[in-house]
Specification:
The chain is mainly beta and 201 residues long. It has one helix and seven strands; from the N terminus they run αβββββββ. Strand 1 (54-56) and strand 2 form a beta hairpin.
């Protein structure tokens, strides 16, 4: 497994899929959250939503876009990460430090390119369009799957309400899983992760 550095050309190339502009690596798009067309070029880094892909317009010639986010604790070193600030003690640094590969997320359905979760993170309240202002669990608590209608996701979820739906998750050992939103806190997101006794409200 290749562990990327935040803000690196490696990360940019990965999301471009090594395709020259204006092509986009379509494997990184969820059918429930496609890329809008044409690409938004006047908005700085438009976030994704439960039903749409995110677009990184830092340099529009690279056309970096997708429907999934990368677990920031798998970066091989630490940088500004475009607003993602993982707990330094939680970064894996090397593959040898990943003690639970079958339970460590790599990619998940997400409204931005990456996320840095914490066991104390509450879910998003707006499950349709949580935005990326919160760089933790809120970025992936979106009911894209295993629910009636992703486009009708709750936009003002009461505190403590059980979360509907699920997301797709790719894990370090290479398998993929459909994971209920309610269970996201039970995965080993970081090196020092401890499952909370109950889901944060």
């Amino acid at each position: 497994m290749r562990i990327l550095s935040p803000n690196s050309e490696a990360e940019r190339s990965f999301f471009r899929g090594s395709c020259p502009p204006p092509q986009i690596f379509v494997c990184l798009f969820c059918p429930e959250a496609p890329l809008t067309s044409p690409l938004p070029v006047s908005t700085v880094n438009p976030t994704g939503s439960c039903v749409s892909a995110w677009v990184w317009t830092d340099n529009v010639t690279t056309n970096i876009a997708g429907s999934y986010g990368f677990n920031a604790y798998l970066y091989s070193d630490f940088g500004p990460g475009y607003g993602v600030q993982p707990d330094l003690n939680g970064i894996f640094h090397t593959q040898a430090n990943i003690l639970c590969p079958a339970a460590t997320p790599v990619f998940v359905d997400c409204v931005w390119i990456n996320l840095a979760t914490d066991p104390t993170d509450p879910p998003a309240r707006n499950l349709l369009n949580p935005t990326y202002s919160d760089y933790g669990m809120a970025r992936c608590t979106i009911p894209r799957h295993a629910w009636n209608a992703p486009g009708a996701a709750p936009t003002d979820l009461p505190v403590g309400t059980p979360l509907p739906g699920a997301i797709n998750m790719g894990l370090v050992d290479g398998h993929a899983a459909l994971v209920k939103l309610q269970s996201l806190w039970n995965y080993s997101w970081s090196y020092n992760w401890t499952n909370p006794a109950t889901r944060p409200p």
